Amino acid sequence: LWDLKARLLEVPLVAAIDTVRDATPLYGSGGFCSLTVPELCAQLSGWVEHGLGQVKMKVGRHPEDDRRRVEAARRAIGDDVELFVDANGAYTRAQALAWAETFGGFGVRWLEEPVSSDDVAGMVMVRQRAPAGMDVAAGEYGYTPSYFERMLEAQAVHCLQADVTRCGGITGFLKVAALCDAHGVDLSAHCAPQVSAHACTAVWHLRHLEYFHDH
Questions:
Q1: Is pTM, for the whole model, over 0.85?
Q2: For the chain, which domains are there?
Q3: What is the pLDDT of residue 2?
Q4: How crowded is residue 21: how many other Cβ atoms within 10 Å of its Cβ?
Q5: pLDDT at 214 over 80
């Protein structure tokens, strides 16, 4: 419907939305566990060369390799770039707490889905006990307002995520943004940058938009 509205008005989608910002901050995302260490470092440093000051990599698939890969990534991007890690819910609560401490030693600023986002109590535990300066995030698998309300009311995250392709399109995404405003929590847009970039211009408490390596 938003696309139809923009077409009928003969304007870009962003012009059909009540915007509050002129630009959307991005971070580079990729760093799959399937990549070799040289491939990982080349990808992340490539984002930096393109001017992105924040980059994200995956962890948790092969925990025995996580420390080595994160250490290599930090060396590749330097100390002035923020390093994010995404576990996709791979860790247990105990593992997540231990890894948060390890990642903190490498200056990791963002720990995404350290445990399953369905484990709200576990998310709360990690958020409360994460090292200073490390934000805990989750929310990309949310489809309904009740999911996001539950996360926010439990204070499970420092920053909530939402995916415009899953949470009800642009209207649903803006509803999540309103919930974030009410709770004073930042919102980060998960993937789909070609659509999300338009919606993000209407978000007051926007942290950033994930610019994925292939979509």
A1: yes
A2: 1-23+139-208 (3.20.20.120), 31-137 (3.20.20.120)
A3: 85
A4: 12
A5: no
